[in-house]
Design goal:
By secondary structure, this protein is an alpha+beta fold. It has twelve helices and 16 strands. Helix content is 33%, strand content 22%. The longest helix is centred in the middle third of the chain and has 22 residues.
């Protein structure tokens, strides 16, 4: 989790830097504004830097990890930058004390994932005890040190996914998050909606950039090239299926019908996983090979919806007790759910079971993954 950093002999401080855990935990979604296209920032907006209501400048006694947890939790809530702890066990080394505080922080963030904007601790010896400096993601502080050059403005979760997809091939995309209510876990989850299954996007440690890495291929450039090929296939199919006089429901029926009629489930996933090509997990499977598992079905449906100009998202969770993926798309003025995988091979529309289901209908045999329901409500502005 971290190590001891020893400066030159002239320095009296021994500093250990420990990154806080950013593991996914369920949390309540943040309020998000209307979806707007991300734009590169010009001049920084005037955003006042919050001042902690309680500076917490006392000395906090610590005998066990449990003693430190409520102190850290209060500090994170108030964006307090520094604490001093007095450990009762004088035999503990700085590293031991730092590990204890790290473990305490992990427990706090496990219970309160909405506080994950506190992302780093730096512990050092002080005249009255152990000084613990806390680093917060700049978007929570109003960017006191300035905004990254060329940063993309992010006002909503949808903006974040769009920024990643609009800049495919860019390994690091600087961003400025203008909505301080966005939650770290939600932002990490929505980035799974980007990359088309070929590029893995994540936030960097302090949420000032999106980091992109190749999923299947050795290089990001190769992944982006494959995405371009798949997009061309989707565009060709959409041109064949869709006409300007179709409404959204007619377009969705055409897209759904094409996928379920032209794609078979790739049972190598169960019988011989090593023989199953990576493309079966992406839109390449349905559009190029005619075989896929649920991920491929869902990505193909989403890419064709994008070609049709219909907002659409992937949903991950479980179905029939197994990991599964399906879609949520806007039909008219209402978001509905679609599972092309479970209707694969059914050519008669009257027999489709998972076309344009309501949430209540879908949840009868589909279970949302951790944080997915809240994320979808935030993305589609249907939060209850």
């Amino acid at each position: 989790m971290g190590g001891i950093f020893v400066p030159g002999r002239s320095s009296m401080l021994c500093v250990i830097v420990l990154l806080l855990s950013m593991c996914g935990c369920a949390q309540q979604p943040a309020e998000t504004p209307d979806v707007s296209a991300p734009t590169e920032s010009a001049l920084p907006e005037e955003t006042p830097s919050p001042t902690p209501a309680n500076p917490m400048d006392g000395i906090y006694p610590v005998a066990t990890q449990a003693d430190a947890e409520p102190v850290l939790e209060q500090a994170y809530e108030g964006l307090v930058p520094q604490l001093t702890f007095a450990f009762s066990d004088e035999e503990l080394t700085l590293q031991d004390r730092s590990i204890l505080l790290q473990n305490a922080s992990n427990q706090v963030l496990s219970r309160r994932p909405e506080l994950k904007y506190a992302y780093q601790l730096e512990c050092a010896e002080g005249p009255e005890g152990t000084i613990c400096s806390i680093q917060y993601m700049p978007y929570k502080l109003g960017y006191p040190d300035g905004i990254p050059e060329g940063a993309v403005e992010i006002h909503s979760l949808a903006d974040l996914a769009e920024a990643a997809d609009d800049r495919l091939g860019q390994e690091e995309i600087p961003i400025v998050i203008r909505n301080p209510e966005l939650l770290v876990d939600d932002m990490q989850r929505v980035l799974q909606q980007a990359g088309y299954g070929y590029v893995v996007d994540t936030l960097n440690n302090d949420a000032t950039a999106i980091l992109a890495a190749s999923g299947e291929f050795e290089t990001l450039e190769q992944s982006v090239e494959r995405i371009g090929e798949v997009k061309d296939m989707a565009r060709t199919v959409a041109e064949q299926l869709l006409t300007d006089d179709m409404d959204d429901e007619e377009k969705l029926r055409a897209i759904y019908g094409y996928i379920v009629e032209h794609t078979a489930y790739d049972y190598r996933y169960y019988q011989d996983p090593g023989a199953m090509p990576f493309g079966s997990r992406t839109a390449y499977g349905p559009l190029a090979e005619g075989t896929a598992i649920c991920g491929g079905f869902s990505w193909a449906f989403r890419m064709l919806c994008q070609e049709a100009g219909i907002p659409c998202w992937n949903v991950t969770g479980t179905g029939a007790g197994e990991e599964h993926m399906w879609n949520c798309a806007l039909m008219g003025e209402e978001y509905r759910y679609f599972d092309t995988t479970w209707d694969a091979g059914i050519t008669d529309e009257e027999q489709w079971r998972y076309f344009a289901c309501t949430e209540a209908e879908m949840t009868q045999n589909h279970q949302w993954g951790q944080g997915q329901e809240e994320l979808l409500h935030a993305l589609t502005d249907t939060k209850k």
